[in-house]
Amino acid sequence: MVPNLDFYAADDDWISVIETVFDLGLFRVFESDSEPDCELREFQAVPDVPDGPRGRHLALFVVGSGPDPMARRIDLLPGAFGDATFRYCCEGWGLIQLYYGGSIGTQELRWSHTNHNTEKRASAWATTLQRLGDPAEWNWAAVTSASGRLNRVIRRMAVSKIGSHPVLPHAARVIAHASLQYEYGVGIHATPSYGLNRR
Questions:
Q1: Beta strands in 68-196 (DSSP E)
Q2: What values do phi and psi take at 22, rounded to 5?
Q3: pLDDT in tens, 122-150
Q4: pTM of the predicted model, to two decimals?
Q5: DSSP label of 136
Q6: Which of 60, 71, 139, 166 maximizes the CB count within 10 A of its CB?
């Protein structure tokens, strides 16, 4: 099973999560995808992380756990992003993904999310994704340990749970204010899905 944590966060909660990432002192923090026509950025401190899409999809490299992350160039279709012709994505077998879900209007709050490969999954894909090198070069115990520590801190930040999903303080206020009560898909909603009438 791939280790992950889906949790509810909104606005200031996300800043608290990023602060936790840096405070733990275990990670180098990269954007998952660069801005069009720009190099991939590594963030050194909380203020460096932008308030926007590139600051909401992060790749965490556990220091000393394996080869440095790779920036893979992706050529863009003409006109897809104005005059931009390329972007970069951050790759590595043992990177931990940290994504912010946040509010979609006033009708939905999506899960935020941590996740990473296991050694078993990486080994199964190694021949297909040879550009990522040998998964055996990674210290998977270190990746799993750091991921677990981050997830435990996020759980401790929660003020409640919905199902198995921790709810952070500002998310709890958003959920209450917008009367979000139906959990399905990738978050919690103000209205039920067809045929569903429960949280």
A1: 70-75, 86-91, 96-99, 102-104, 108-110, 112-116, 160-162, 165-167, 182-184, 187-189
A2: -75, -40
A3: 999 999 999 999 999 999 999 999 999 99
A4: 0.91
A5: G
A6: 60
